[in-house]
Design brief:
By secondary structure, the protein is of the alpha+beta class. It is built from five helices and seven strands.
Length: 176
């Protein structure tokens, strides 16, 4: 999904629309400025909501950067930059995450997580819709301060989130 398409899904809740010229303008409209400013926050919010199978990747752990001793664990491996969260469901050993490190007693752990960068492949279209609704919720009080659009956008977000989680729970055959 293009940036323009995502912004127009967001803005459609406010009965507004932008063009590619608006997006590329040296003096962007309030709608474009708000969308660009809040998109990273909306994307991260949607990505953190659930352990989405299409976002889970095997993490590259640098076992040479080992800082042991935290809470009695024998290893403390530095986690990769840009990690949003470690996915507990795919890691079958005791561990704790603190201060950007994975503490464990396992020498060469296999760890899965979700990274900040949204991959291009395997992301369902309705996940982009979820991001658009998260963005709408972020900008609603700024775009329509006198309205109650924040409640409408939260309902749309919740509806899209529940639909995606339901689909994820019924599609458990995909490997991470």
């Amino acid at each position: 999904m293009t940036e323009l398409e995502l912004y127009n899904i967001t803005l459609s809740l406010f009965d507004r629309e932008i063009s590619q010229e608006d997006l590329d303008s040296a003096t962007p409209s309030k709608e474009v400025r708000l969308c660009k400013r809040y998109l990273p926050l909306a994307r991260i919010r949607a990505m953190r909501e659930f352990d989405w199978s299409f976002l889970v990747v095997r993490l590259q752990i640098d076992t040479t950067d080992d800082d042991a001793g935290y809470r009695g664990f024998t290893h403390g491996y530095k986690l990769p930059q840009g990690l949003l969260k470690v996915v507990h469901a795919f890691s079958e050993f005791p561990y704790e995450v603190a201060g950007g490190r994975l503490y464990t007693d396992v020498e060469d752990p296999v760890v899965f997580g979700i990274m900040e960068e949204l991959p291009v492949e395997h992301v369902p279209m309705d996940f982009h819709e979820l991001i658009a609704y998260a963005l709408a919720y972020q900008i609603a009080p700024l775009l329509v301060p006198e309205g109650r659009m924040d409640q409408v956008t939260l309902q749309k977000y919740t509806w899209a989130l529940n639909g995606l989680i339901s689909a994820e729970c019924h599609n458990n055959s995909r490997e991470a």
